[in-house]
Amino acid sequence: MEKERCKWCLSSDKMMQYHDEYWGKPVHDDQELFAKLVLDLNQAGLSWNTILNKMENFYAAFDGFDIEKVARYDEAKYESLMQDAGIIRNKLKIRAAINNAQRVLEIQKAFGSFDAYIWSFVDGKSIQHKISDEAEVPASNELSDRMSKDMKKRGFKFVGTTVIYAYLQAIGVINDHADYCFRNAELQ
């Protein structure tokens, strides 16, 4: 019998795999938290499918999202990223990724890890939304507003409340799998 999934992921096998294996699964690795932040900020104004189809290219172009390496990118590396057709060639988004790597290093010094900072907003526990109709899923909420404001104050770029809400869903801080979806129960 076919597993029932959130309707948003049914458009392709790649989307279903992302949904089944990654979306909403709690992430606690700083490098992966940074990677997902960069991928989500690149999604702004685009479909997730666009990002998903370029994900391998992003990992290659950004040195596996090694935070220290990305934080040290110079103008020559920025220019090479601007020429890389395999990623989103948006100068503000590329500059934001480099800037945000530098901010993550500051967070690590202040909090011990990026993970400790991110999960401190929810006392280390995922928020379990009860979603029966995917149209009920908001684009932002009080948590994404609060985190976005704090991150902006710390110098992060491209971290508006909508980007942060999508990020929180992706890294499992918020479980927005529909109640009929098989992943919802697995992530409780």
- Based on the structure, what is the oligomeric state of the protein chains? single chain
The helicity comes to 55-70%
Radius of gyration: 16 Å
Calculate the mean pLDDT score and round it.
96
Q: End-to-end span in angstroms?
A: 22 Å
CATH topology tier name: Endonuclease III, domain 1
GO biological process, one term: base-excision repair
Pfam families: Adenine_glyco
Keywords: Membrane, Metal-binding, Transmembrane, Transmembrane helix, Zinc
Organism: Lactococcus termiticola
Outline of the structure:
With 188 residues, the protein is mostly helical. 56% of the residues lie in helices and 2% in strands. It holds the Pfam family Adenine_glyco.
Provide an overview of this structure.
- It is a single chain.
- With 188 residues, the protein is mainly alpha-helical.
- It has a single domain, classed as Orthogonal Bundle (Endonuclease III, domain 1).
- It contains ten helices and two strands.
- A two-stranded parallel sheet has the order 1-2.
- The longest helix has 21 residues.
- The mean pLDDT is 96.
